[in-house]
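Rather than argue in generalities, we have chosen a single entry, letters for residues, whole numbers for local backbone shapes, without further comment.
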Amino acid sequence: MTEPEASVPAVMRNYHEVLRNDLAKVLAPLTDAGDVPAFNAAWQAYTAAIAVHAAMEDGVPGAGRGITAMLDLFFDGAAGAAMFKAEHVHEHALQAAVSDAIAHGPAAVRRAFTAYRACAEAHLVHEEDVMMPLVARLPSPRAPLFAEWCVSAGIAHGSFDHFVAHGVESLATFGSAKNSPAGATRVFVHALNAVCTPAQWAHYLPIARGAAPPQVWAAVLAEVPSLDTAAAMAA
């Protein structure tokens, strides 16, 4: 594994940008428009992706124990893994309320989604406020830690192909708060490469490449040409 110039926690941090994109730039406009069928399709894509992300945070039995448990181990419980798991339980209940509202029309969806969005966005900020300072203090190299504790949990959860494709498509479309679409995609994909084995990267690279517009992918490779080389060597 190679440590990218953007630290490997960018896999997790940039996925927060994906989730924010979903909430503010995809789902919210659909609720405003009252387009329930389109909302339903986008909601299914969102919930499938955030479920993998949550597994990478909380851990999966028999696989990685998740980022919060990792940080608790290194920093004497400072991450508060149990607290964040409890927040996920509350968030999942509000997710279920949104899913249930879909059968009851635009007004019900708008009410349920408004409540869910407020919870989800506050949760993302809380995680960043607590975890990012701790992540910065982790020993280097960080890539093996994230591979063992987080990526293995995401893969064990299932739907990791969707997690990758959804993340790349979102960042390549909307970018992030700090980066253009090409820049955000590069940071995420480069970090993902760093936490994958060569064989895993040979599998996920075509998924990532297929989810990005050609011009965005060309810009990514112009900055990090080794991404294609690494996959070719593993094939």
Notes: The chain has eleven helices and no strands. The chain has a mean pLDDT of 93. Residues 34 and 199 are 44 Å apart (CA to CA). The first helix runs from residue 10 to 33.
